[in-house]
C-alpha cells in the first residue's frame, strides 16, 4: 500500500475519505475522537500544498438529504482543530460541492456534505455505485483513504472511487492496521474478547471466527439478548435478533467442544421505557436475573453481579479486545456496565484494544484516560472484520 508520502500533492485536489461519524446531541458533537484521529492526515496534506476535499458519512440516512445527519458540525470542529478556515459544501457532488472545490487554493480544506445523502454511496448495484463514484472522481485528482471505521463497507467512496484515482492510505489507516495486525499474528493468552453494542446483526457473525482465536468471549449490550433467548429465556422488549438464534445455538455448542468460555449476563438492568437521552431524566431502572426479564421490560445494561463477574473474567487476561458498550451508556443510569468493563481492562495486565465509534466515545465520556489503553481503534465493525482475516473492501482498494 502506498502512503501519502508517496504522493505528489502540491497544487492537487486530494479527496480524503474520512470517518467523521461522530456522536451528536442535536448539532453538538459529544465526542470528537474520530475528527482528532484524522486531523493529522488532513493537516499534513494541507501543509504540503494540497487542496484537500474531505468526505465522510454520518449516521445512516436513507440515501437522501436529512438535516439531522449534516456534517456541518464536524466541518466546523475540523476547522477549530486545524486552526484554519474549512469550507463546507451543502451537497456532496452538486453545484455547491463543485463551486467549493473550485474555490480552494493550495493548502485549503473543504468538507463535503454527508456521502449517504446520495443513494449511490451505499447501493448494492455496482453500476449505481460506480456512477456516484464517477461524480466524486470529478472533484479530485488524487485519493487518500483514511476512514478506517468504514473500510469494511463496499461503498462508492470507500471501494469504487480509489479504483478511479491514483490512491494511497492515510496515516490513520496505516496506524490502525499496524496495531490490529499484531492481534492476528502473535496473541498473548488468555485472550478475552468483549462484545456488546447495538449493531447486533453486523457483529454476531464475527463470533464464528472468534471461536477459533479467543479463549473467553464476554457478551453484553444489545447482543446479549439474542444469547439469552437462545438459552431459552424470554427477553421482553429487549433488542433481539430472532433469526440469529440458531446461529447462536451453534456458537454455544462449538464453544463447549473447543473449550472456549462464553460468559453471559447473570443479571440485567431493565425498564419499561427507553430512557430520555436528551434530558437524562432519572430512569429508575430495575435489576432482574437474566432468566427473569418481564415481558413489558427492556434490558438496557448488564446488572451489578454481571459487572463483578466480567471484571473477574478480565483480570487474568493477557490480551483483551473490546467492541460495543455494555448498555445504553449515554444515560447515567445505564452506564455502569460499560464503566465496569472499561475499568476491568485497566485493572488487568493485558494488552488492551478498544474498537468502535461508540465504545471509544464511551471510554472518554465516562472519564477514562484514553492513553491508559493499549490502543483505541476508530472502527468497531472494521476492526472486528480485520481480526476475522476478511478482505476489507476499503483496504483492498488501496493496494496497488
Ligand atoms: N441493551 C441495549 N439496548 C439498546 N441499545 C444498546 C444496548 N446496549 C448498548 N446499546 C447501544 O449501543 C450503541 C453502540 O453500539 P455499536 O454502534 O454497535 O458500538 P460501536 O460504535 O462501539 O461499534 C450505543 O449507542 C448504546 O446506547
Ligand atoms: O460507526 C461506525 O462503525 P462502528 O459502530 O462499528 O464503530 C462507522 O462509522 C461505520 O458506520 P456504519 O456501521 O453505519 O457503516
TrEMBL record:
Keywords: ATP-binding, Cytoplasm, Glycolysis, Kinase, Nucleotide-binding, Transferase. It comes from the Bacteria. Gene3D superfamilies: Phosphoglycerate kinase, N-terminal domain. ATP binds at residues 203, 299, 330, 356-359. Pathway: Carbohydrate degradation; glycolysis; pyruvate from D-glyceraldehyde 3-phosphate: step 2/5. Substrate binds at residues 19-21, 34, 57-60, 116, 153. It catalyses: (2R)-3-phosphoglycerate + ATP = (2R)-3-phospho-glyceroyl phosphate + ADP. Its EC number is 2.7.2.3. It is found in: Cytoplasm. It is an enzyme of class 2 (transferase). GO terms for molecular function: kinase activity. Pfam families: PGK. HAMAP family: Phosphoglyc_kinase. Monomer. Belongs to the phosphoglycerate kinase family. PANTHER family: PHOSPHOGLYCERATE KINASE, PHOSPHOGLYCERATE KINASE 1, CHLOROPLASTIC-RELATED. This is Phosphoglycerate kinase. It comes from Streptomyces ochraceiscleroticus.
Amino acid at each position: 500500500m502506498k502512503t501519502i508520502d508517496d504522493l505528489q500533492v502540491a497544487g492537487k485536489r486530494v479527496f480524503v475519505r474520512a470517518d467523521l461519524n461522530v456522536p451528536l446531541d442535536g448539532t453538538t458533537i459529544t465526542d470528537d475522537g474520530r475528527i482528532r484521529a484524522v486531523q493529522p492526515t488532513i493537516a499534513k496534506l494541507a501543509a504540503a500544498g494540497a487542496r484537500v476535499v474531505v468526505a465522510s458519512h454520518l449516521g445512516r440516512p436513507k440515501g437522501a438529504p436529512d438535516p439531522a445527519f449534516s456534517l456541518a458540525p464536524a466541518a466546523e470542529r475540523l476547522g477549530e482543530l486545524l486552526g484554519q478556515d474549512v469550507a463546507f459544501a451543502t451537497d456532496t457532488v452538486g453545484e455547491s460541492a463543485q463551486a467549493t472545490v473550485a474555490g480552494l487554493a493550495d493548502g485549503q480544506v473543504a468538507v463535503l456534505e454527508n456521502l449517504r445523502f446520495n443513494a449511490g454511496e451505499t447501493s448494492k448495484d455496482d453500476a449505481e455505485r460506480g456512477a456516484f463514484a464517477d461524480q466524486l472522481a470529478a472533484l479530485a485528482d488524487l485519493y487518500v483513504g483514511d476512514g478506517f471505521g468504514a473500510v469494511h463497507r463496499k461503498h462508492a467512496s470507500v471501494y469504487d472511487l480509489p479504483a478511479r484515482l491514483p490512491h494511497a492510505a492515510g496515516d490513520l489507516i496505516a496506524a490502525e492496521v499496524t496495531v490490529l495486525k499484531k492481534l492476528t499474528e502473535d496473541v498473548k493468552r488468555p485472550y478475552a474478547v468483549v462484545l456488546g453494542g447495538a449493531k447486533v446483526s453486523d457483529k454476531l457473525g464475527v463470533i464464528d471466527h472468534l471461536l477459533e482465536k479467543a479463549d473467553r468471549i464476554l457478551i453484553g449490550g444489545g447482543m446479549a439478548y439474542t444469547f439469552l433467548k437462545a438459552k431459552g429465556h424470554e427477553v421482553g422488549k429487549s433488542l433481539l435478533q430472532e433469526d440469529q438464534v440458531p446461529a447462536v445455538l451453534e456458537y454455544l455448542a462449538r464453544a463447549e467442544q473447543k473449550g472456549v468460555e462464553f460468559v453471559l449476563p447473570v443479571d440485567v438492568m431493565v425498564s419499561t421505557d427507553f430512557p430520555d437521552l436528551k434530558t437524562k431524566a432519572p430512569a429508575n431502572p430495575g435489576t432482574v436475573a437474566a432468566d427473569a426479564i418481564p415481558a413489558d421490560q427492556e434490558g438496557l445494561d448488564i446488572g451489578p453481579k454481571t459487572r463483578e463477574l466480567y471484571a473477574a473474567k478480565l483480570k487474568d487476561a493477557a490480551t483483551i479486545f473490546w467492541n460495543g458498550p455494555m448498555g445504553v451508556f449515554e444515560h447515567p443510569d445505564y452506564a455502569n456496565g460499560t464503566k465496569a468493563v472499561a475499568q476491568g481492562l485497566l485493572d488487568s495486565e493485558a494488552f488492551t484494544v478498544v474498537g468502535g465509534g461508540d465504545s471509544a466515545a464511551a471510554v472518554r465520556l465516562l472519564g477514562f484516560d484514553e492513553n491508559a489503553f493499549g490502543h483505541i481503534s476508530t472502527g468497531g465493525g472494521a476492526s472486528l472484520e480485520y481480526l476475522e482475516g476478511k478482505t476489507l473492501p476499503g483496504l483492498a482498494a488501496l493496494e496497488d
